[in-house]
């Protein structure tokens, strides 16, 4: 039987907290998900990356976007993605907020999903596993 080529998923994390970036990447490893991570410490830097060369995003499996960031928050990033006609990416809001207004606003602005970061370690890891299982595992992306 011929084996297929294994492609390592590419995950973008946009969060102003570098410790959170480490938690996420180590969390994915801990639950058995090997991925290439691209980290941006601001929404502005993420948008510059996407605008610079849309081809860079064609293999992106998932974008994890924090809401509460200085300069440009997650909602502003979502809005900019819509208004600038940037490539459609699966953007999952991964934030400490569970406020209904934030949830509704994010979906209205084109978020693919909204996940509140759990505080307890095991629940946090379980959330990352579920996110990865769906977005990296079973989700089928649009062909480019």
Describe the fold and architecture:
The structure is a single chain. With 144 residues, the chain is of the alpha/beta class. The protein has one domain: Rossmann fold (3-Layer(aba) Sandwich). 42% of the residues lie in helices and 17% in strands. The protein is built from 5 helices and 5 strands, in the order βαβαβαβαβα. Strands 2-1-3-4-5 form a 5-stranded parallel beta sheet, sandwiched between helices. Helix 4 (100-108) links the parallel strand 4 (91-95) and strand 5. Helix 1 (18-30) crosses helix 5 (121-138). The longest helix has 18 residues, at 121-138. The chain is globular, with a radius of gyration of 15 Å. The model has no long low-confidence stretch (mean pLDDT 88).
What are the salient characteristics of this protein?
single chain; alpha/beta; Rossmann fold; five-stranded parallel beta sheet; 5 helices; globular
Q: Mind sketching the topology for me?
A:
Elements: E1 10-14, H1 18-30, E2 36-40, H2 43-52, E3 60-65, H3 74-83, E4 91-95, H4 100-108, E5 113-116, H5 121-138
Parallel strand pairs: 1-2, 1-3, 3-4, 4-5
Helix pairs in contact: 1-5
In short:
The chain has 144 residues and is of the alpha/beta class.
What portion of residues belong to β-strands?
Answer: 15-25%
Radius of gyration: 15 Å
What is the CATH superfamily label?
Response regulator
Roughly how much helix do the residues carry, as a percent range?
A: 40-55%
Overall average residue pLDDT? 88
The ordered H/E elements are: EHEHEHEHEH
**CATH first level:** Alpha Beta
Number of helices: 5
């Amino acid at each position: 039987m011929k084996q297929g080529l294994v492609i390592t998923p590419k995950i973008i994390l946009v969060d102003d907290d570098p410790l959170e970036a480490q938690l996420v990447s180590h969390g994915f490893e801990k639950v058995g998900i090997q991925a290439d991570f691209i980290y941006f410490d601001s929404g502005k830097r993420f948008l510059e990356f996407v605008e610079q060369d849309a081809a860079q995003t064609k293999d992106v499996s998932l974008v994890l976007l924090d809401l509460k960031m200085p300069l440009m928050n997650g909602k502003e990033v979502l809005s900019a993605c819509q208004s600038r006609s940037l490539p459609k990416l699966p953007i999952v809001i991964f934030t400490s907020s569970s406020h209904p207004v934030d949830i509704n606003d994010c979906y209205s602005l084109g978020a693919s999903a909204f996940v509140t970061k759990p505080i307890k370690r095991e629940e946090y890891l379980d959330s990352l596993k579920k996110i990865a299982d769906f977005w990296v595992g079973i989700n089928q992306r649009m062909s480019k």
